[in-house]
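retry 2 of 3: previous attempt timed out while embedding iron/sulfur cluster. Reduced batch size to 1 and resubmitted. Inputs unchanged:
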Amino acid sequence: MAARSTFPAGLVLDAHKQQACESPIIELPLPTQVVLALDQGAGYSAEPVVAVGDAVAAGALVARADHPFASAVHAPLAGIIVAMETREAAVQGGRSLCIVIDGSGADRIDDSVRPVTDPASLSPEELVQRMRDAGIAGLGGAGFPTPTKLASARELGAHTLVLNGAECEPWICCDDALMRSAADDVVLGALILRRAAGTVRCVIAIEDDKPAAIAAVTKAIERLRDDALTLAVIPAVYPKGAERQLITAVAGVEVPAGGLPADAGVVCQNVATAAAVARWATRGEPMLSRIVTVTGSGVAHPGNVRAAIGTPLAALIAACGGYRGAPLRLIAGGSMTGRALPSDEVGLTKSMNCVLVTTRDDIGSRLGAVELPCIRCGDCASVCPAGLLPQQLLRAALADAHDALRRLGVRDCIDCGLCDYVCPSQIPLADRFRHARRRLLEAEAMANKAAAARERHELHKRRLQQAATAEQRAFDSVRNRARQPGDGSAGDGN
Ligand code: SF4
Ligand code: SF4
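retry 2 succeeded.
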């Protein structure tokens, strides 16, 4: 049964979703070449296990995840590795080591691609390991490896899995399209994730402007008859999909400042990740593709496209009728938190939920706007979903005042961009806070390094002191023995 949840702060923004949402999902054929970034969006790279010239089958592992924050990468098509080099990519910093595969056109599937016959027969630990091998990562935009989150939820004894179907930003509607077309996959994936995370219940959260998705998921849940799997309908207020805010809205608990959701007994996953888990369990397919919204005023026919990971973005845009008008910017993600892309030659990553092509019309009056002084109107504070005071944070950020930044909670800023959106002085607040956080981290890393060096120096001093004391004791003992009469030393005078 659907329950209505509350949501503090935030804003109702123009959704811009209708056109992309109306058409059915386009299933894009495999491209002739894929460019696989080894950092799939979480900031950590997988380690290549292939070399240039190797032949690979579809589904074969090409890079393994040695770091818990990296995801394994697999070949979405059979072909030959033709390059392994650093290229422009849709990741932080704009570049990543990439593996380039030229498709051979053959239908060769890797032997490892086998359905999981009965996920319920696997222990939670086995499920987590198998998902790690399959490169399952969060499809909601962050690309964080799902198995790492699940393992930490188990360790911390999380009780609730929240499946995020809120689709928080304007323009993006791939989760809506997925829930309408594959609600049973979402629900099956929810059960597997719940088992792997060891939680007792699961809540699927959907915003109330998606009636068709709500109806489809409601039916899928009813077919299952599992009381520990429920649906929560939340108001369509941006940024309800932000993890902390969503958890408070649907699970009624606050994630402690600086803590993890699991510290509050909750683990959050995206609905598309759940569907990918179901695909992996039923087909044995590692994470080889995703649905992505291709939209914006600069796209001829906005829509949702299922494409292989590594597909050049130009092919996605072509599948939606190509460019329209005078495209100004290419953005990975939505209009509020998206990141500018260097070109349409970069490959699709697991974390990319939207390719937004903007024109001058979308950016409007803010384009080239001059930043003015803060007039203390308080608008930014009234919309901040994290309950922060952006105008005070701005003063602390400009002064690089680290104590004040910490006290005012700069780490709780979720980069939603709402303060920028309402600021009449056109101050790029979220950007300033991002930089302030980075400087704070750097300063803390330096302080930690200095403290570690001090500790090493003290330890070294103590060891020298101990060595000197031991030496002195040995010397004193020899001297005392030498002073004792009749010990046969030269001092006897005979
Ligand atoms: S919205 Fe802009 S001008 Fe108003 S208080 Fe915040 S920073 Fe200052
Ligand atoms: S970007 Fe940060 S400070 Fe600004 S409204 Fe969002 S959470 Fe608040």
